[in-house]
Design a protein that fits this description.
There is one protein chain. The chain has nine helices and eleven strands. With 274 residues, the chain is an alpha/beta fold. The chain folds into three domains: 160 residues, Formyl transferase, N-terminal domain (Rossmann fold); 60 residues, Methionyl-tRNA Fmet Formyltransferase, Chain A, domain 2 (Roll); 42 residues, no CATH class. It has a six-stranded mixed beta sheet with strand order 2-1-3-4-6-7, covered by helices on one side. The longest helix has 21 residues. The chain starts with a strand and ends with a helix.
């Protein structure tokens, strides 16, 4: 009986494992979701024919990729879009569709040989796109196994994407409602930093964006105090309130409640005794 590993930290992949792969005849499947379990020793004890990797952000050790056939699923039409944050980089570039590409992991970043590709629309939120990719990935896994597909080298012009940073979720510099809509939806999935706006003390996070027929965007907004303020910024603000309002208890108390931090209470108590 052939053994296979499904490696993923995404809960959607568990649906593939539970609903489809476990029901395949004459195969033994092992689901690994914890990085600590993905070791050469553990993999050797399983001795899989192939390792399928739908969603995994950690580096795959070379002692595993050299010893076993590891297949990753990338959300671009490779070699276009090698690199990080493929979904977000596609949407900000205006793409409406893409391909899921199944490739064998080699020593490079998304440079491995290709098994097959499947079309995928980029409509909706990141979460909806991932959900839509699920049955396609399941279908691709089965096709690779059942048809015993051999991979072929990548061909075409190479475009490399940079992994996006959390600071790029800031939507303050965008120019159109359409751009704002795309930024909100492309980050709207668990594990991604949401689209946001900042004031001096407040952070606005945006999810569940919809765009009506007039192009107006509506979204769910979460409002919270910023958590990235330094001690000096907090002290300067308290001192400004104290001097401007002559120890205005209401403003100081409101600030302390919104920040909800022991250091705020300590600083304010100190300020009120001056």
């Amino acid at each position: 009986m052939k053994k296979y590993i499904l490696l993923s930290k995404n809960h959607l992949t568990k649906e593939i494992y539970d609903e489809f792969l476990l029901n395949r005849n004459n195969e033994e499947w092992v689901l690994i979701t914890d990085k600590k379990q993905f070791t050469k020793e553990n993999i050797k004890s399983i001795n899989p024919t192939k390792i399928f990797i739908p969603h995994w952000s950690h580096i795959i050790p070379t002692d595993i990729t050299d010893a076993y056939e590891c297949i990753v699923f990338h959300l671009t039409d490779l070699p276009y879009g090698r690199g990080g944050s493929p979904l977000q980089n596609l949407i900000v570039r205006g793409h409406k569709t893409t391909k899921i590409t199944a490739i064998q992991i080699d020593g490079g970043i998304d440079t491995g040989d290709i098994y097959l590709k499947e079309d995928l629309t980029l409509e909706g939120t990141a979460q909806q796109i991932f959900e839509r990719s699920n049955p396609l990935i399941k279908q691709m896994i089965e096709q690779i196994i059942d048809d015993d597909i051999s991979p072929y080298p990548q061909e075409g012009d190479t475009v490399v994407f940079r992994r996006r940073k959390p600071a790029q979720s800031d939507i303050s510099a965008l120019h159109t409602p359409s751009q704002v809509y795309d930024h909100i939806r492309m980050l709207d999935a668990p594990g991604y930093p949401p689209a946001y706006l900042l004031t001096s003390w407040i952070e606005f996070n945006f999810t569940e964006a919809i765009r009506n027929e007039n192009g107006i965007v509506e979204a769910t907004v979460t409002i919270a105090p910023r958590q990235d303020k330094t001690d000096k910024e907090i002290l300067d603000t308290i001192e400004g309130i104290r001097e401007e309002n002559n120890k205005n208890w209401v403003d100081l108390l409101r600030l302390a409640m919104e920040m909800d931090a022991p250091r705020m209470r300590k600083y304010i108590e100190s300020s009120l005794t001056k």
